[in-house]
Specification:
Layout lengths: L6 H10 L8 E3 L9 E6 L5 E5 L5 E5 L10 E4 L11 E4 L5 E4 L10 E5 L4 E5 L13 E3 L5 E4 L6 E5 L4 E5 L12 E3 L5 E4 L6 E6 L4 E7 L14 E3 L5 E4 L5 E5 L9 E4 L17 E4 L5 E7 L2 E9 L4 E3 L14 E4 L5 E5 L1 E5 L12 E4 L3 E2 L4 E7 L8 E3 L11 E6 L5 E3 L1 E3 L13 E6 L6 E9 L2 E2 L3 E5 L3 E3 L18 E3 L4 E7 L8 E7 L10 E17 L1 E14 L2 E12 L5 E5 L5 E7 L8 E9 L4 E5 L12 E5 L6 E7 L6 E8 L1 E7 L2 E6 L2 E7 L3 E7 L10 E9 L7 E3 L2 E5 L3
Parallel strand pairs: 30-39
Antiparallel strand pairs: 1-28, 2-3, 3-4, 4-5, 6-7, 7-8, 8-9, 10-11, 11-12, 12-13, 14-15, 15-16, 16-17, 18-19, 19-20, 20-21, 22-23, 22-32, 23-24, 24-25, 26-27, 27-28, 29-31, 31-36, 33-34, 33-37, 35-36, 37-38, 37-39, 40-49, 41-44, 42-43, 44-47, 44-48, 44-49, 45-46, 45-48, 50-60, 51-52, 52-57, ...
């Protein structure tokens, strides 16, 4: 129930507000054109979705290639159907954003969902029998459902994004949830301090569908017009609840799920210019250093002030350049960089001091390391969702960020790119040692070696070495219909059990036409009921393909994956697959696979296969062997800075021991030897020898590797003998260099 100040006043305040300050705050280099920056959400692909104040216009902030949001660029998102200001909201587990109601605007009783993949808004019905939603409180439960209240009634409803349907939940104990701040707790319950009925507090248990009383807070946090502040879980397991009165209380949840926890009063905010300030209907964010960044102000009056709160002490920090507004107009959003975006008509970013406790970080336990652009993968680990919802506002504007993001940093360019995460196994937090997961889609564009991290609430996991590769696709559409498929593709050969073969059949699979692959008796009609066997000359990773004709009843077939003579995994073919919507068979959890057997087909009518897509496993390597011969400056080095990958240029770096330009004899062969010469040892049985000039420093030696799978796993050797006039023997040798071609 905030006063709707006219836009002219907004603009006047912006004109007199100070510019961005040092020591923590910086104004974004690019501001969205014509936008009065308001509520913002962190999308699961690392971008920021932001609302234009009291408008149907929305904007997208995309970080730069080096990961900077400060220098990021803006683009227009799809325009919503309704205008809104101060509304219920939440990030759904599939990556969509739900927006409901609004205290002002045309959408006070309307609900829309934004799909960032389609860049579109879809209106959905509100709960049956409901009136206005207005600025209702809301949360996303750990199971991914969205929970919100009706305006000025005790009604509560829960939306299931999987079924797009509403279910009525138990009514609150007090007459209304108006102006309340809801906070989901680690056990899935929901904490609130009653505004209508202050200083009471309640807890909702979704398992029991029941609200229980938590008693009164130690001091009243609600002012005379029912306003309150934000509330956030801290790393110590206590929820800091800030008042619209100049007070703070902490709630410690019960160790029994759904039990009654304990309240204590904490330290009041400091006086500012002799006046009591509060987090009046405003925001806070959990920083990676463990402190909370909190806005404080004088009720509905400008300006607002910024403090860090460590659970006891208040630490004065500089105010941003847009602080010439009342505190309730500011929004804080924690970014994956650990910085905080402040949107209040203009956009500023706060860089905190300090660093997180290492025990707060996500930990990756399993993730595929060979990735294809556009491929959908799954990463597993602990604490993937962080330890808090991390962002809060005094009732509406739920901008929680407790979901995992997946980021790549490419070795060759130094660029960063966010994958599109979706459908984490939980939307809860503080999950301890439990293993959880999220799916992620690798962006198109850059390929090559990269470091993969999972980020939760601005804190990154350990780095995992991965390689992003362009996919190899086999879809049989280059062949005529009725052809036996054997060795037509260099990446894989096809076969079946004795007496059977695989043939192309004229059938359209979605956009792939005209052929699919079916088994058949040799020379007979396809029956699609026998094994399809793939042998790969080079080990593969990230295999997916399509199944057509699957009836969705039980396991229709089994995919066995082999590495040499070892069975490394089996994947069941389960689901429905039609030509228009084929079933995707995902075997991306298994790498270094050399043979695949698709068998055990029990589906009536058999199953056809199509659109095999995979990448070759990362087997490239290099190492030194043997001993070199010292020259003027010691033994010259022979190392590799770009691996011998199929279809790329390998770079070996030859160090010159003389410190001046000279000549070297480069020996290359597919076997080694041990031949004494000039006091040293020739280590390579040379098939090729080249005389070449070398620099005083390091000389890069480039070699193009053909994109031929027959080369995968091939090992060859090299050694350089350098002319060194200052050495007693007038020559120096490198150690041997062993190279294994891979992809």
């Amino acid at each position: 129930m905030k006063p709707l100040v006219k836009f002219a006043t907004f603009l006047a305040l912006s004109a007199v507000a100070p510019m961005a300050q040092a020591n923590g705050w910086k104004k974004l280099t690019h501001q969205p054109t014509g936008q009065n920056a308001s509520t913002a959400f962190l999308l699961m692909d690392g971008r920021v979705l932001m609302n234009d104040n009291l408008s149907a216009k929305w904007w997208i902030l995309t970080p730069t290639a080096n990961g900077s949001y400060t220098d990021g660029t803006w683009s227009a998102a799809a325009t919503a159907k309704y205008t809104r200001l101060y509304y219920a909201s939440g990030m759904l587990s599939d990556g969509r954003v739900i927006i409901a109601g609004g205290e002002y605007g045309t959408g006070t009783d309307k609900i829309e969902i934004y799909d960032p993949v389609a860049n579109s808004w879809t209106e959905i019905a509100k709960p049956s029998g409901w009136g206005s939603i207005a600025d209702a409180p809301s949360v996303v439960l750990p199971d991914g459902r969205f929970m919100m209240a009706e305006y000025f009634t005790p009604k509560v409803a829960i939306f299931d994004p999987k079924t797009n349907s509403w279910t009525n939940a138990a009514n609150k104990l007090n007459p209304s949830s108006v102006e309340e701040t809801w906070t989901v707790l680690p056990d899935g319950t929901v904490l609130t301090c009653d505004c209508q009925g202050a200083p009471g507090s309640e807890l909702y248990d979704p398992l029991l569908d029941q609200w229980i009383s938590l008693g009164n807070t130690p001091v009243n946090l609600v002012d005379g017009i029912l306003e309150i502040g934000s509330a956030l879980m801290m790393n110590n397991g206590e929820v800091a609840c800030f008042g619209a009165t100049p007070h703070v209380c902490h709630y410690t949840p019960s160790t029994t799920p759904g039990g009654v926890g304990t309240w204590v009063q904490s330290t009041d905010p400091p006086l500012v210019a002799g006046k009591a300030v509060s987090n009046y209907d405003s925001c806070s964010a959990l920083l990676p250093n463990g402190n909370l960044l909190v806005t404080l102000g004088l009720g509905f009056s400008a300006p607002y002030y910024m403090y860090e709160y460590d659970g006891t002490n208040w630490i004065d920090v500089p105010d941003p350049g847009n602080s010439g507004h009342p505190a309730y107009e500011a929004r804080l959003l924690l970014l994956p960089t650990g910085k905080v975006l402040n949107s209040c008509y203009s956009v500023h970013i706060y860089t905190p001091d300090g660093s997180p406790d290492p025990t707060w970080a996500p930990v990756i336990t399993s993730v595929p390391t060979d990735l294809i652009p556009g491929g959908d993968y799954q990463v597993f680990g602990t604490q993937l969702n962080g330890r808090s919802t991390a962002c809060s506002y005094g009732d509406e504007c739920n901008m929680a960020t407790n979901y995992p993001l997946v980021r790549l940093k490419f070795a060759n360019s130094g660029n960063t790119a966010y994958c599109r995460a979706h459908d984490p196994s939980t939307m809860g937090y503080m999950t301890g040692s439990a293993i959880h997961s999220t799916h992620f889609v690798v962006p198109s564009g850059e390929t090559g070696p990269a470091k993969l991290t999972v980020i939760a609430n601005g804190i990154a996991s350990q780095e995992i070495d991965v390689v992003v590769r362009d996919p190899i696709a086999i879809d049989f559409d280059t062949l005529a219909t009725g052809v036996a498929v054997t060795t037509q593709y260099p990446e894989a050969s096809f076969s079946s059990t004795a007496g059977f073969e695989n043939v192309t059949v004229a059938a359209a699979n979605g956009a792939s036409a005209p052929n699919m692959l079916c088994s058949a008796p040799i020379g007979g009609a396809p029956d699609c009921a026998h094994d399809t066997i793939l042998d790969f000359p080079c080990p593969i990773a990230s295999l997916t393909f399509h199944a057509v004709g699957v009836d969705s009843v039980g396991t229709a077939a089994t995919v066995d994956l082999w590495s040499g003579a070892t069975l490394v995994g089996s994947v069941a073919v389960v689901g429905a697959g039609t030509p228009s919507t084929p079933l995707v068979v995902d075997c991306t959890a298994f790498g270094d696979v050399s043979k695949v057997v698709i068998g055990g087909i029990s589906d009536p009518g058999g199953i056809a296969w199509d659109d095999f897509e995979f990448c070759l496993a990362s087997t490239a390597s290099w190492s030194n062997f043997g001993s070199g011969l010292a020259g003027t400056l010691g033994i010259p080095s022979f190392t590799v800075s770009a691996l011998p990958l199929l279809g790329t240029t390998m770079t070996a770096d030859l160090g010159n021991s003389l410190g001046a330009a000279t000549l070297a004899l480069l020996l290359v062969g597919d076997s080694t030897t041990s031949l004494p010469f000039k006091g040293g040892t020739i280590l390579v049985d040379a098939d090729v020898s080249l005389l070449l000039p070398i620099n005083a420093g390091t000389t890069p030696l480039d070699a193009d590797i053909d994109n031929d799978p027959a080369l995968c796993g091939v090992t060859f050797y090299a050694q350089a003998l350098e002319v060194d006039a200052g050495a007693p023997q007038k020559v120096s040798f490198t150690a041997g260099l062993e190279l294994v071609v891979g992809n």
